[in-house]
Amino acid sequence: MKPPPDSSQDTRQRLLEAAVLLFAQKGFDGVGIREISQKAQANSALVQYYFGSKEGLYLAAMSFLFDQGIDSVAALPAPPSLDEPEAFAKALDCLKGYIHAFLEELFACHDPAKCSRELQSAAHLFWTRELMEPAAGRVDIILGHVRPYADYLAACIRVLRPDLAEDAQFLMGSSIHAQIMFFHRDMSMISLLRGSAYGPQDVGTLATHITEFSLRGLGLGNTLQGVQ
Amino acid sequence: MKPPPDSSQDTRQRLLEAAVLLFAQKGFDGVGIREISQKAQANSALVQYYFGSKEGLYLAAMSFLFDQGIDSVAALPAPPSLDEPEAFAKALDCLKGYIHAFLEELFACHDPAKCSRELQSAAHLFWTRELMEPAAGRVDIILGHVRPYADYLAACIRVLRPDLAEDAQFLMGSSIHAQIMFFHRDMSMISLLRGSAYGPQDVGTLATHITEFSLRGLGLGNTLQGVQ
DNA sequence: TTAGGTTAATCAATCGATTGATTGAGTCAA
DNA sequence: TTGACTCAATCAATCGATTGATTAACCTAA
Fold it and tell me: In the predicted model, what is the mean pLDDT of residues B192-200?
């Protein structure tokens, strides 16, 4: 019965979402609190009121973003343990699903300014940006977001190549992650070199390529015949 | 017989080199011309005198950097053409050499602040940074630097997998480039997840891993038996 | 129900600091 | 003298942050 309450948390939320998009696009130094407040249709003083400082808003934006982004990995079936029956086949499915889900998440929208699922993909811009110049205090937030991804992939590889040493398994996982993220991060360069960009409609193609390339790279090329 | 001439071009050069290192580290918005001038032991007004503006200095720094960085690729033997005798074996060697040379260049120094060959590796920080938010006018400079790399790898793959369509060949090249750059760009994350970072002493290990992973990924796993 | 008091939320105005850029005087070799 | 070069001083603009006033909602005693 109440008219739009429009109370505190609404404005705070608008500031947070505007901050997420602008920080992801332009970085911490690239945006001012005036621009953020304007996009959020709020007063710039509210940044200090709600978040203490511009840095506080930045940290809040990252946390806000990562807290609701883990879904795509958590939604996948848990990777099997080594002694589980049919562990190998399950790990294979997990790996394929992981590659596809990760790509889907990244390509939900490549341009955060034009997409409704913009928040989902903006998280990885923070990820990339923060890892280029890690700042004290921010590292933990990023790491908390990254670790589930790394752990999931590592668990798959542990089952698929239990004969490898841990170092070698880590290298394998890195090679796979490298490919997944490359097609998102370096889209600008790909677009320039290739003439056109990969978009959400290419997720299937990219997932297939990365999966096949990586399974062969893992030394499991024989498993491709029976499946592909 | 002259005491340090300290003439114009010397100051200009000092500004350029200071700009390269600081811009690569902190990005365009992260550094001020005062900080750059101080590091270069020059007056901040000289930025306008020599380069017109801060942006002019930034562009000059990128050009300066990329003009002298192509050596590492140009030093490699030219990739063979398709009809050349022993083209396959040559392309194989070129690919291996390329992966190693590229990694060597990237890992010449990971921390541009502490390294004598700092300029070499700083170029790729520009590369990564610029591709995240491409600005008009800067894209061409980056592309001019990237293209020789992309072309070299593409030429190798064309010989190694002539049966593939051009699109598929591009995907193969992307998967290889993705791995090479991942271990450099995401060193911060790797260091956090793995406990320690890869350094210049690990170039051999990384090159071997990427080469083997990629050759299997390319569907050339059989060639590894005879070599590795 | 009403009047007075308390609180959180929001605002315009302004702060000191820093930014990139400009100026005009100065230096020094040719 | 001339012209290329360098400097301290200064500019307007913008930055993040602070302030004091204003609004609206709720609580409570009369």
Answer: 91
